[in-house]
Amino acid sequence: MARGAAGWPHRISDRLHFERGARAAYPGLRGGPTKRTTGFRYVATIDVPYYEPRTVTITFPAKRRTPSVLADGPPQSPHRYDDGSLCMWHPGDPPLMQWRFDHGLLDLLDAIRAHLFREAWWREHSEWLGPEVGHRPNPELKESA
To answer: Buried b vs exposed e over 92-119: b needs ≥16 C-beta within 10 Å?
Structure first.
């Protein structure tokens, strides 16, 4: 089976390859099988530059290589799905603008860190730093000044 294919978290060599460098950069990183599914979950505390640290939960559902990412803290953001998960890239974005499984966990954690910084900045300044695709209006979002 190819690296990163379904079942990757249960093959230690594939998981070590995927996690390479992540535990050194994020020392509190924990990972393991999800309780209710055959997926895999990581939990990490991410230091957001100039803002409070956030605890994130990254879940890879069974047989999928695209994660769902949840973060604690304020949920107001123009880039979250209805379930509160982070919308970090648009499916129609060019490949260079999206995280892919073969980029590894460290790159994903770094992308989450950048996203959480942009959210915090947006809550404070009503300005999203970086590229974005519009979302449908959400009445719970902070209104722009």
So the answer is: eeeeeeebebeebbbebbbbbbbbbbbb
Q: Which of 79, 85, 20, 96 is nearest to 58 (CA)?
A: 85
Burial class of residue 77, CB neighbours in 10 A (0-12, 13-18, 19+): buried
The number of beta carbons lying within 10 Å of the beta carbon of residue 123 is 15
Please count the residues of the chain. 145
pLDDT digits (tens, 9 = 90+) for 106-145: 999 999 999 999 999 999 999 999 877 665 544 444 433 3
Q: In this structure, is residue 130 part of a structural domain?
A: no
Residue 51 structure tokens: 């803002």
Q: Which domain holds residue 89?
A: 8-125
Q: Is residue 34 part of a domain?
A: yes
pTM for the structure as a whole: 0.84
